């Protein structure tokens, strides 16, 4: 079984419905906070269930939601049917898209489920379909020394802030016995430190730097922002870019 097979089946990685909703709202708000302008064409690659896609769609010209799991894509199509500027596609459809199709590409919590060769291949594809001035945002990359205990601590902190601490504590116990934990042990995760992912991006024609702020709730994971290199030599980028904060909706009550 591959990770694609796993996500195509029935999975439960959220400790409660509130966790699921807040997670997707947080990611959508993070994406909105980094949009260059309202005329932006966005690809959300590995979008998952995209429960708050409407927030992103309302802030851009067009939104393409891509997920490898067919069952997930079918759910998203039903949920986004009323969003005229939104399409749901497979990874294969992205590979067939014209050069320069997007001004912003977000691949959040995706890298860890790829092999090194798959990552390099997708970086080449993302670079090709990125507009010359566009940006590629690789979010929630798992560094080498960040393991399940660090992730658990981040989840507990996040759950305490948003009112589902007890559900999170119980959910961590269930996760330890779940198919996800077994598949993580069996298939592994691609874990890359900052210098490694930047070097890989550069090898595929992308100038990259780390954002001060990670997409999502886990501050111990990495977000990398990359742009196309117009020439053979890398162009300098700011040492550490900051993702603006736009989380005013995150403090709503249950």
What is the CATH superfamily classification?
A: Vaccinia Virus protein VP39
Measure the end-to-end span: 37 Å
Q: Give the overall form.
A: globular
Strand content: 15-25%
Structural class of the secondary structure composition? alpha/beta
Sheet having the most strands: 8 strands, mixed
Mean pLDDT: 86
Fraction of helical residues: 40-55%
Characterization of the model:
The chain is of the alpha/beta class. The protein has a single domain (3-221), classed as Rossmann fold (3-Layer(aba) Sandwich), CATH 3.40.50.150. The chain contains ten helices and eight strands. Strands 3-2-1-4-5-7-6-8 form an eight-stranded mixed β-sheet, sandwiched between helices. It is globular, with a radius of gyration of 17 Å. Residues 232-242 and 244-254 have low confidence and may be disordered.
Sum this structure up briefly:
With 254 residues, this protein is of the alpha/beta class. The chain is 41% helix and 19% strand.
Write the layout of secondary structure elements.
Layout: H1 3-8, H2 17-33, E1 41-45, H3 53-57, E2 62-66, H4 70-79, E3 86-89, H5 91-95, E4 102-108, H6 116-129, E5 130-141, H7 148-162, H8 165-176, H9 179-187, H10 194-203, E6 206-211, E7 222-228, E8 240-241
Parallel strand pairs: 1-2, 1-4, 2-3, 4-5, 6-8
Antiparallel strand pairs: 5-7, 6-7
């Amino acid at each position: 079984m591959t990770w694609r097979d796993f996500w195509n089946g029935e999975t439960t990685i959220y400790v409660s419905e509130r966790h699921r909703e807040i997670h997707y709202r947080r990611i959508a708000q993070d994406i909105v906070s980094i949009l260059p302008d309202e005329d932006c064409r966005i690809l959300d690659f590995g979008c998952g269930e995209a429960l708050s896609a409407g927030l992103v769609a309302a802030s851009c010209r067009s939104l393409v939601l891509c997920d490898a799991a067919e069952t997930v894509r079918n759910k998203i199509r039903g949920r986004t049917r009323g969003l005229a500027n939104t399409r749901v596609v497979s990874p294969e459809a992205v590979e067939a898209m014209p050069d320069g199709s997007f001004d912003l590409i977000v691949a959040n919590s995706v890298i860890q489920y790829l092999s090194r060769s798959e990552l390099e291949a997708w970086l080449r594809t993302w670079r090709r379909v990125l507009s010359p001035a566009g940006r590629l945002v690789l979010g929630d990359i798992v560094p080498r020394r960040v393991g399940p205990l660090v992730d658990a601590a981040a989840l507990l902190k996040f759950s305490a802030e948003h009112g589902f601490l007890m559900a999170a504590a119980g959910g961590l116990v269930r996760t330890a016995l779940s198919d996800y934990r077994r598949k993580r042990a069996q298939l592994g995760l691609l874990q890359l430190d900052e210098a490694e992912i930047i070097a890989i991006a550069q090898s595929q024609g992308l100038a990259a730097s780390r954002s001060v702020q990670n997409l999502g709730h886990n501050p111990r994971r990495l977000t990398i922002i990359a742009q196309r290199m117009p020439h053979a030599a890398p162009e300098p980028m700011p040492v550490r870019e900051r993702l603006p904060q736009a989380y005013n909706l995150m403090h709503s009550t249950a």
